[in-house]
Amino acid sequence: MERTGAIEKQSMVRLENIKKSFDVSGKSVEVIGGIDLDIEKNEFVVLFGAGQCGKTTLLKMIAGLEDITKGTVYIDGKKSSGFHPGVGMVYQTTSLFPWLTVMGNVEFGPKARGIKKEERRKKAQYYIDLVGLHGFEKHYPVKLSGGMCQRVGIARAYCNDPDIILMDEPFGHLDAQTRYMMEEEVEKIWAKEKRTVIFVTNNIEEALYLADRIIILTECPAVVAKEYRIDLPRPRSMVSEEFLALREEISQLVDIPRESEEKAV
Ligand SMILES: Nc1ncnc2c1ncn2[C@@H]1O[C@H](COP(=O)(O)OP(=O)(O)OP(=O)(O)O)[C@@H](O)[C@H]1O
């Protein structure tokens, strides 16, 4: 709880000294080394760090899908234990049900909660339209491109009315062009639907394009190395002076080669 004068501001997500160790061949390996974090309602927070630093593990602990070794997660002020219905997840690779159509996948959550057909169809249609898939309602995932599948995943997450949406490198497997398009889509949807989003990536441009705040994690065991509040106006230009200056600063901090340097090696 943050104190601002006499008023107490409650975080949507609060992590208190979160630690995680895995047992690997009988040895305890610490992956998360003690993370404290407060995330405000409707904030767009990006967890940024090198591959294998523990980002997915942290996200899973927030979702209640992974046991916490030490520390506490609070969701909307309440101590969280296990899966929380107010948390939705969009995964790295598509996790759609292949035997269900686009409509079937998006309405799956409300259907499981017993929402009547007419109501859940209306809602699912709204989110299908919002992610730009109008006309694809009856298609099966096998007939869709990677970007379209991720759109369905996003619509499915929103259709469950979560307060918090966790996105785990959702565009990591897409080609560069589709990735830019999807980043624009997510930004637009977030501007319209305003939820608390925690987005994992190891792509600096993506982080800077989307985030209100970037949390930079150290390599394993992950702790918060630094955080940046990004106040650039939205929608952002990836070639503005301020954007490029921040990209340079963060690149140097985390020493991640740019795409062109990676290719040159
Ligand atoms: N169930 C598990 N048992 C043992 N080790 C695990 C388990 N899950 C994750 N790890 C280890 O924890 C570390 C962090 O993994 P994690 O997937 O959280 O990293 P990440 O930052 O999300 O990686 P990437 O960016 O490559 O997706 C890795 O070394 C991984 O091998």
UniProtKB/TrEMBL annotation:
Could you identify this protein by its name? ABC transporter ATP-binding protein
Keyword Nucleotide-binding found: yes
Q: What InterPro entries is this protein classified in?
A: AAA+_ATPase (IPR003593), ABC_transporter-like_ATP-bd (IPR003439), ABC_transporter-like_CS (IPR017871), ABC_transporter_ATP-bind (IPR050166)
Alphabetical keyword list: ATP-binding, Nucleotide-binding, Transport
Which residues does the UniProt record annotate as the domain ABC transporter?
13-244
User: What is an example of a GO molecular function annotated in this UniProt entry?
Assistant: ATP binding
Note the CDD domains from the entry: ABC_NrtD_SsuB_transporters
- The answer on whether this UniProt entry bears the keyword Cytoplasm reads no
Source taxonomy lineage? Bacteria, Bacillati, Bacillota, Clostridia, Lachnospirales
Species in which this protein is naturally found: Faecalicatena faecalis
